[in-house]
TrEMBL record:
It comes from the Bacteria. Keywords: Oxidoreductase, Peroxidase. The keyword Metal-binding does not apply. This is Alkylhydroperoxidase. InterPro entries: AhpD-like, AhpD_core, CMD-like. GO terms for molecular function: peroxiredoxin activity. Residues 12-94 form the Carboxymuconolactone decarboxylase-like domain.
Length: 159
């Protein structure tokens, strides 16, 4: 496997603006616990080891239960998620995988039944952001855990 370039070092202004965009999402209408689930699920789907590692650690530091973290991949079968969380996870999967026919009315109505218009909009921007980060980190093979110290993720106490 060859070493890939560091896109963040090559495009520092774009990186800075994307980080700022991500920071704005922290004050969105969607609670941080759901944002964590969204970041984890999109990263699982996209096979982004760096982002999955980061967001699982962030969620644990914020108090998310370890079993729920393990169940994100099987959220449909799990009894550990609320109806609101399930709607957000369904919306995440729909926007992350975008089939040939877009997003079904059934999934749209499901999320609309649980979230306000502002929340749906904010959630969609959050999904867009994590998919962007996933594509950068997968494309340039960012090593999982390589930024733990810088982001304080070494406090997650995973062994």
């Amino acid at each position: 496997m060859s070493q890939r370039l560091n896109a963040f070092a090559q495009s520092p202004e774009l990186f800075k603006k994307f980080v700022e965009f991500g920071m704005l999402l922290k004050s969105s209408a969607i609670e941080s616990s759901i944002l964590s689930l969204v970041e984890i699920r999109a990263s699982q789907i996209n096979g982004c080891g760096f982002c999955l590692d980061m967001h699982v650690k962030e969620a644990k530091i914020r108090g998310e239960g370890e079993l729920r973290l393990h169940h994100v991949a099987i959220w449909r079968e799990s009894t550990l998620f609320s109806t609101r969380e399930r709607a957000c996870l369904a919306w995440t999967e729909a926007l992350t995988t975008l089939g040939a026919h877009g997003v079904s009315d059934e999934i749209y109505e499901r999320v609309r039944g649980e979230l306000s218009e502002k929340e749906i909009s904010d959630l969609s921007f959050a999904i867009m952001a994590i998919n962007g980060w996933n594509r950068l980190n997968v494309g340039f093979r960012t090593v999982p855990g390589s930024a733990d110290k810088a982001y304080g993720l070494d406090k997650a106490n995973f062994s």
